[in-house]
Amino acid sequence: MDQATHRQLPSTSSFRPSPLVIALRRSLTLPLVASSLAIPPAFGQESGQAGLRLEEVVVTAQKRTESLQDVPISVQALGSAELDRLNISGFSDYVQQLPSVSFTQRRPGQASLFMRGVSEGGNGNQSLQGPSVAIYLDNQPVTAIGFNLDPHIYDVERIEVLMGPQGTLYGAASQAGTLRIVTKKPSRDAFEAGVDFTAETISGGGNSYLAEGYANIPLNDRMALRVAAWWDDDGGYIDAVEDTITYPLSGITRGNAGFVEDDFNEVEKRGLRAALGVDLSDRWSAVASVSHQRLETNGIWDHDPEGLGDFKVGRFFEDSQEDEWTQFALTVEGDLGFADLTYAGSYLDREFETYSDYSHYSIDGFVEPYYTCYVSYFGPCVDPSIQYSNLSDLSYESHELRLASSGDNRLNWVAGVFYSEVETAFESRWSVPPINPGAAVEDDLYFQTDQVRVDKEKAIFGELYYDLTEELVLTLGYRRFKNETTLDGFVGTIFWPDCCYGYSSQRPPDNVASEFDGSDGTGKVSLAYNFSDDIMVYGTVSEGYRPGGVNRAPGVGETYQPDFLTSYELGWKTELQDGRLRINGAVYHMEWDDVQIGFFNPDISLLGLVDNVGAAESTGLELDATWLLTDSLDLMLTYSRNNAELTEDYFARSDATAPDATDGQDLPFTPDTKYTITGRYHFPVQGFDSTLQLNWTYTDEQWNDIFASTREKMDSYGLLNASWRIEAGRWHASLFGSNLTDEVAELYINSVDIQRLVTVNQPRTFGVSFGMNFN
Description:
This protein is mainly beta and 775 residues long. The chain has a single domain (19-40, 48-774), classed as Beta Barrel (Maltoporin, Chain A), CATH 2.40.170.20. The protein has six helices and 44 strands. The strands form ten sheets. It has a 22-stranded antiparallel β-barrel. It has a five-stranded mixed beta sheet with strand order 3-8-9-6-7. Residues 1-48 and 497-502 have low confidence and may be disordered.
């Protein structure tokens, strides 16, 4: 498709090989029983439609250029034209169009992705377990814990979503799937350029403005330069209103004067990208690129519908974010005769700084009794309101060298080596301004996390593709990997008793020095049968994994192990009605073992910890259909039906009498049903080409947490979007509306700072855009 029993962990790592890996080590083949699939009869072709056919979709999901219909993987692809027609400019836009993908996102640039229901809830704590979905920008993984990269979607060739484990070719974090953003590359064929301008008005909110431009410039017969730039200024729709908070121990009441503002959740995104393509010789070529983006936000995307009303929230400190990153990349390709060689190397430098109001934590925490209202030592109680901040510096280096067999042989293959190193230096601060009267601003901390985390992966990988017959193709894949994680620094209270319970302006010495390393492998076996050039059926058994890691404090073990997922999938790729109807799909069953779960239990530790506990499974169906009914009307449907649940009770403590999550319980952020329906009607207006489009997305209800005592069910929601586009020669113009029914959707119910808030979508929005091409 285009798209728990608790146990003590040992202090040293010990990977266990999975059954699939053992089987691959013993044999180069694995028996697989092929099931027959009844193909519905083709619809009768309408008169006058001869020659009408769907365009070929080209992807690089298997690290070589192929037609989507020839790839025995469930893939959804949103091409450049589709991205443009759907007015997609960022993460919150495209994720709604991907039925097998669910997500949480409190702010732009702070998102977690889940695929096919493989979700333990995720987390935004950079000390804990990593995500189960990998994100790539071109050839570089850019996955981050809770802070996934949110590049502006412009001058992008396509977005590819690879569903199911991709452990062989993509490695760590591709446990449930991989999302790839593929940018457009320089071309020597011809000069082309374009500009686009968009303006929007939000119902009950502010206005948004967008300017974009690109140019492809052939420099000579061997070189071309492609540049793109964008400025995106999004208006807000959340009002920060007057509010008060009263703390239970001191009785202090705090108002929020100075933090009241209409439509305060604004975001500005500026960036550019440049790529130079060079034909080094007749057999060798290279593309060097640099991308840069700066994102700034004010406010939050949460509201308090029960306490203050829709699109209203009370805040008592600053809420803002700056996220700036630069990516350098180099891809070199060469023809060695017997094989094609590819080197892909890149370096990402990212800095982000976040400020959040955390005041409600003091209502139900340890702040008042231990820090701000301990009269015997500190005198009168003071206001315990908290300003939270996070300053992070992330560097991501990756290198891949691979060979792929040349020609169209009975035996084809790809093999390579991979190395990546991610260093995340992060400092999280919890500040109470009156805790140390007269001190400098930076000396009002009461708790701090100041750490450096380094994650490394080394791997060798390969896949073999063997034509058993003209119709039957066998794929065998294997990846051997070694992961290392170190975590060093300090975490704990700053207001500490170095003398007589007085304040120390220097934080205590480092108290975290943890290390994990281990190695194992993942495998893949697939059979694909071509009934004809237009009908293929495949069956796949594959594995994905998340690396193990380290804990910051004792309680459940110094380290936690990798968790593995094994998928059993039967899929099909079909083109019917002489190429006017495309129906791709897959059914799957996935088993998830030794699930890594991050949790907080003050009876064990005041810090978040990770443990391997319990098991889960996910069973589902995916469909992706496109139908050209006439030369004027086409319909698209993407659909996902999924059942994901725990298969063992989960206990956060070994001595607990009741489980924290129960066998049979739905996994969080896993809607049973999610789908999109898009219809387009093409018709002339005054001699100009025009297109009317309707797009409906539906997301079923889902749970917001894995822990039974705190989880809530979020309501289902549907979003209706429409647009009318006119094209004439070099220019085009559009009128569009999003969320036309003005649905108030519960995207995420959270209690991150103890207060219950709901992340909400943008209200009804109308806009107009205008663009010109210079070719």
